[in-house]
Amino acid sequence: MAYLDLTALQKSFGANQVVKSFDLGVAKGEFVSLLGPSGCGKTTVLRMVAGFETPTVGAIKIDGQDVTHLRPNQRNIGMVFQAYALFPNLTVAQNVGFGLKIAGVSAAETAARVADMLALIGLPDMGARYPFQLSGGQQQRVALARALAPRPRVLLLDEPLSALDAKIRVSLRAEIRDIQRKLGITTIFVTHDQEEALSMSDRVVVMNGGRAEQVGAPFEIYNHPKTRFVAQFVGTLNTLDAIVIDPAGGEVTVQGQPLRLPQPIAALRGATVGLALRPEVVHLEADTAQISRGDFALPARIAAVQFLGAVIRVKAETAAGEISLDLFNRPDAPPPPLGAEVALRFRGQDVIVLA
Amino acid sequence: MKRILSWAAIAVGVVYFFLPLVGMLEFSLKMRRGEYSLDAYRSVMGDPQFQATFGYSVLMACLTIVFGVLVVVPTVFWVRLKLPRLRPFMEFITLLPLVIPPIVIVFGYIRLFNTSSWLPLTGSALGTDFLLMCGYAVLALPYMYRAVDTGLAAIDLRTLTEAAQSLGAGWITVLARVILPNVLVAVLSGAFLTFAIVIGEYVFAALLDRPAFGPYLVWAGGNKAYEPAALAVMTFALTWACMMLIQLATKFSKHTRMPH
To answer: Which of A25, A72, A169, B52 is deepest in the core (most CB within 10 A)?
Structure first.
């Protein structure tokens, strides 16, 4: 049995059903992200776990204990909010010690635990400061320490990095993951940022319209999306129409060129199916003569080049539509010029067939 | 030209406002013939009736503030957090004391709580004091409600409440340790306004026959010459002191100071 067990959760606000039968089991010490667009119900699920919303239907169990109808202050769950939510009238040390004071922990033990927590988040000398004297990143680290100080059973992170600038966000997400691993605390992280979800999580739950579309490890979610929504929401995706020639043999044609897919296709002969390609699996051949027989290659014209530093994102126009591809930057290989005639090559095993 | 006109308008305003005050201050100092003295103030301070009524009103003001804070802060907190749709209704209710004359309210109280009613509060001095305090709280409600409402609007009420709850705090702890300290400046400004209202209030105290400072001011005005002016100056000074205290409270609330 999972440590945190969400069974058939549903939540309606009036006639609007925000969460529709949501099931999830989280193992002890696991880091699970709820990823999805605005309004997909991810925050509502988190708030039901925290106790701020009561499920219309369903049950929430932590370590076998049914907490569905317990008040938030009775659940022993730590939560970090997007807006930091530090108490402005208390110092950093008082903020971190707030939960311990409420729990009736002795002053000496509170002081020791606060010092440990401040050391854990790398702010050992900031205890006497007030929240307004800290940067956004520091405030969020203090909020994390405050949530962790009472040793909660589960840690909930509600888009904790959204209010921070890009550089801090990247460093803080690594820091949060390190701390989570060190303490082995079961964590649910809500985000709409796929990069955050993929880089931090043991498993990702992709949500859409109040349901979990797919639950899996980041590698699986990215490379083997089960639904069209997951494929399109996670990462950048090129879509192509293909005509099925041999469903059992996985044979299709794209723009008249045959392409063999590694798996059978669940469609009738002659039907049109959607194929999807990640930008990184498409290769650009400037010299079309280089393409060997048997390779699949689409003639294309360079329409746009975006230099992003380590990666160059190229957009090329083909008869099948616009295709994006990523090239690694190399100082000896400048990006292709706009309007250049090229070929785009990819392999059948890199293609995702959209359901 | 425009600049001169602006200064002239300010000068007229200042003269209009301060000249009567200066006149009153000067008159209060003229009790001794031919020279300025503090005799009127000495006379007022030495009057046992002044001490008794002023002490009574200060006590009632303090009790009203405590009562008002205990009623208004949790109410505004709850309405903002759980019943935001009731806010226009609350606005309307809290404005009523400004529209309904105090004499109507106090006659209503006397009818409702007289000795032959189901709750005979006017039957005892303590009961009448409680009724008076409730009346004062109603009079101060428009100011206290707005002060607290503005204070709560300035903080992220929902998130702070949820953060405290997730750390194990119940409703009373949330209110006492998180919400109240963060709206203390607003509550203090409401409290000082309440104090100023209660100290000078006449109608409630006179009709409920309580020994408050307001009726004493009126009695002194009708029976003495220089002392009423001294009392008016003292009342003004007290009100201004309250306003300065609001400013000081705002200035010294260190956690609300913004970084430069």
So the answer is: A72
B26 assigned to some structural domain: no
Of B156, B170, B258, the CB nearest to A73: B170
Q: Which residues contact A334 (CB under 8 A, 6 or more apart)?
A: none
Q: Searching chain A, which residue's CA lies closest to the CA of residue B254?
A: A89
Question: Residue B240 belongs to what domain range?
Answer: 53-253
Strands (E), chain A: 4-13, 16-26, 31-35, 57-62, 65-66, 77-80, 154-158, 186-191, 203-208, 211-216, 238-246, 251-254, 257-260, 272-277, 283-285, 296-307, 311-318, 321-328, 341-346, 352-353
Tell me if A102 and B168 make a contact (CB, 8 A cut-off).
Answer: yes
Which CATH number covers residue B153? 1.10.3720.10
In a domain, residue B188? The reply is yes
Residue of B nearest to A129 (CA): B255
Kindly state whether residue B174 falls inside one of the protein's structural domains.
yes
The whole-angstrom separation of Cα B260 and Cα B248 is: 20
- Collect all residues with Cβ–Cβ distance below 8 Å to A89 and sequence separation of at least 6: B178, B181, B182, B184, B255
**Which positions in chain B touch A98 (Cβ < 8 Å)?**
164, 167, 169, 177
Residues belonging to chain B with any Cβ–Cβ distance to chain A shorter than 8 Å? 155-156, 159-160, 162-170, 173, 177-178, 181-182, 184, 254-259
CB pairs below 8 Å between A and B: how many?
A: 78
Residue B60 domain flag: yes
**How does pLDDT run along chain B (260 residues), one tens digit per residue?**
789 999 999 999 999 999 999 999 999 999 888 889 999 999 999 999 999 999 999 999 999 999 999 999 999 999 999 999 999 999 999 999 999 999 999 999 999 998 888 888 888 999 999 999 999 999 999 999 999 999 999 999 999 999 999 999 999 999 999 999 988 888 988 998 899 899 989 999 999 999 999 999 999 988 888 999 999 999 889 888 888 887 887 777 655 544 43
Give the integer Cα–Cα distance in Å for A74 and A66: 12
- Between CA A99 and CA A148 the distance in angstroms is 9
Q: Which amino acid is at B158?
A: R
Per-residue tokens: A262: 């590694």
Contact B160 A131 (CB under 8 A): no
Q: How many domains does chain B have?
A: 1
Distances (CA, A) of B237 to A89, B62, B184, B202: 32, 18, 24, 19
Contact residues on chain A for B257, CB-CB shorter than 8 A: 132
The answer to whether residue A76 neighbours chain B at the CB level (below 8 Å) is yes
**Cβ contact A99–B168 (<8 Å):** yes
CB-CB neighbors (< 8 A) of B178 in chain A: 87, 89
Asked if the Cβ–Cβ distance from B168 to A73 is below 8 Å, we say yes
